[in-house]
Specification:
Family: Belongs to the bacterial flagellin family.
Structural class: mainly alpha
Domain Flagellin C-terminal: 214-292
CATH superfamily of the largest domain: f41 fragment of flagellin, N-terminal domain
CATH architecture of the largest domain: Up-down Bundle
Number of strands: 4
Pfam family, one: Flagellin_N
Main location: secreted
Function: Flagellin is the subunit protein which polymerizes to form the filaments of bacterial flagella.
Strand content: under 5%
Length: 293
């Protein structure tokens, strides 16, 4: 191939190839700077991108699982608030029963305490009926109109589940035996109040023993308290897992912006030099004109 040719300019071809490579490298660097990612799509690194997409899906799944766990926590905590109110009201009921168990309390005074006992029991019934979250309740009674029963919710990104057991017979949490809390419960006599307090109330139609109702409330509080803590622990674990996944994802696909910035400046200088080199190479055939003068 002739070295002195206007048809083939070797110097210009080399300069152009070098400039094209520089421009390609600049496009890659600009993409990394603008997205903040070393691997923004499958063209950058197919294997790394496939792994990154799987990790992103896992993070999305955990986020969704925590949303569902949050809903379950709402049901549990609402039920716990009702149980706390019931346990507090039991203190008032016990004080009233002590008054009713006193044989010296008679006449209008006894009638007043009996009415007070009936009102307090009706309050407990309403606490049970109102223990609903989004139309769902964990306190299962004959009078409950909300959706009742155990709650099974997704706990993680792979579809694992978490079950919260309902209080199967919430009628044990109150002295009332009526399905309707507006129905007045029978007021205990002095002997019945005494038997309720000392745990000797027995037989068909006899009032419930105070300690039996308190034991049922304590069992329910313990069960749902543990369930609430378990839900909180699962939510916290999922958050920690998401943080770990996102850290690993960053190490896999994130760009080192300090490094890319330095690379961009170097490429800009290289591009300027390449452009100048190509310009000089394109002017080389001009020197051949002097041979024909």
């Amino acid at each position: 191939m002739p070295l002195n040719s206007v048809n083939t300019n070797i110097g210009a071809q080399v300069a152009l190839q070098s400039l094209n490579r520089t421009n390609d490298d600049m496009a890659v660097t600009q993409k990394r700077i603008s997205t903040g990612l070393r691997v923004a799509d499958a063209k950058d690194d197919g294997a790394a991108f496939a792994v990154a997409q799987k990790v992103r899906a896992n993070v999305a799944g955990l986020t969704s699982a925590n949303e569902q766990l949050g809903s379950a926590k709402g049901v549990v905590d609402t039920t716990l608030s009702s149980l706390n109110a019931i346990s507090t009201k039991m203190g008032d009921i016990q004080k009233t029963l002590v008054k009713l168990a006193d044989a010296k309390v008679t006449g209008d005074e006894r009638t007043a305490y009996q009415a007070q006992f009936q009102k307090q029991v009706a309050e407990v019934d309403r606490f049970i009926l109102d223990s609903t979250y989004n139309g769902y309740s964990l306190l299962t009674t004959a009078a409950q109109t909300a959706q009742q029963g155990n709650i099974t919710t997704v706990r993680n990104e792979s579809g694992g589940t978490f079950t919260i057991s309902a209080i199967a017979n919430a009628d044990t949490l109150t002295f009332s035996t009526a399905a309707d809390p507006a129905t007045a419960v029978a007021a205990p006599t002095q002997a019945q109040a005494q038997a309720m307090l000392d745990g000797t109330s027995t037989g068909a139609g006899a009032p419930k023993n105070f300690k039996d109702v308190m034991a049922a409330i304590g069992t329910a509080l313990n069960q749902l308290g543990n369930d609430s803590n378990a839900v909180d622990s699962q939510i916290t674990y999922n958050k920690s897992k998401m943080d770990a996944l996102e850290t690993g994802l960053g190490a896999l696909v994130d760009a080192d912006l300090a490094k890319e910035s330095a690379r961009m400046q170097a490429l800009q200088i290289k591009q300027q030099l390449g452009t100048q080199s190509l310009s000089i190479a394109n002017q080389a055939p001009q020197s051949l004109l002097s041979l024909f003068r």
